[in-house]
Write a structure and sequence with these properties.
Elements: E1 4-5, E2 18-21, H1 35-46, E3 50-55, H2 61-70, E4 80-83, H3 84-94, E5 99-103, E6 117-119, E7 127-130, H4 141-150, E8 156-159, E9 165-168, E10 171-174, H5 176-185, E11 190-192, H6 199-209, E12 223-227, H7 230-240, E13 243-247, H8 263-269, E14 279-281
Parallel strand pairs: 1-14, 2-3, 2-12, 3-4, 5-6, 5-7, 7-8, 8-11, 12-13, 13-14
Antiparallel strand pairs: 9-10
Length: 286
Amino acid sequence: MNPSKLVGVRELIVKYDIFFIDLWGVIHNGKKIFENAIEVLKNIKNHGKVIVLISNAPRPSATVKSFLLKMGFDFNLIDELVTSGDVTRNYLEENKIKKFYHLGPDKDRDIFNQNNQLSKSIQNCDEIICTGLNNAEEEIEIYDRLLKENIKYKKKMICANPDEVVSRGTKLEYCAGKIAQIYSNLGGEVLFFGKPFISIYSFSLDKIRNKFPKFEFSTRHKILAVGDNLKTDIKGANNFNIDSMLILNGIYKDYDYNNNFDFTNLCKSNNVENVYSNFYQKDLKW
C-alpha cells in the first residue's frame, strides 16, 4: 500500500509531539543546507514540539555539530542531535579492555577515547570497528579483498554506520554499512549501531526524556520519524513501532517521483522487504 502524499508537514503538526529527523538527504546533502527543511524546523519549534536529529554519522555528535555549524545551521531550531557514533562510543566505553582495529578514515578516530586500545592489524585485534571507507573515491573491491584475506580470524565487526550509501551533493558514496554487508556475506559476525536498530531510538528518547516531562514518551504513536532511506530510516521506524515519512529527494532522487509513485516498486528496486511508510514528500516542506 502506498504511503499518503503530503503537501507539507503542517498537515501533521497536531498529530505528533516528537519528530525524529534524519540529516543527510533531508536537512542537507553534505554540501548545503536545504532552506525548505529549515522552514520546517522553525515551524515545528514554533508549535512547541520536540525535534531530535538522528544521524547514522559514525562520529560523536560534537563533531557533527561542528560540521553543521560550518554550513550555517542554527542549533536553536532543534532539541537534540544524536549520532550512531554516540551509540558506538558508549559500546567502546563499556569494552575498554578490548583491542580494536579501526577500519575507516583517520578523521573518524574521534569515535575512540584515550582509554581504547587500537591494533594495527585485524589478526591481533579483539574486534573491528568499521566507520567507512578511507577515501570516498576508493573502489569497494579493495575492502572485499581485505575482508576475504582476514575472515579466517573470525573477528566480530562493529559497524558504526549501517547506511550502505549516502547522497553527497549530486553523487552517491558508499558507507560503512556496505563494508559490513560484504563482511556479513562472507560469514562474518556484525554488530550494528544506528538506524534501523532500536538502540539509537531508545538512546534518543533517553536524551530528551528529562527535558520534556510533559510529553508521554511511552506513547509512540505521537512520534514521527523522517528520513530518505528505506533500509535505515523507515525500517528503523517500523522496528521501533513509530510512524514514518519518506523523503524522496535524497538517495532516491533519481526515482521517477512525479508519475504514479509506487512505493512497492521502489522497495523492490532497492531490495527492501517488509517495510511500510505512512507518508512521503519529495523534499521536506512545511
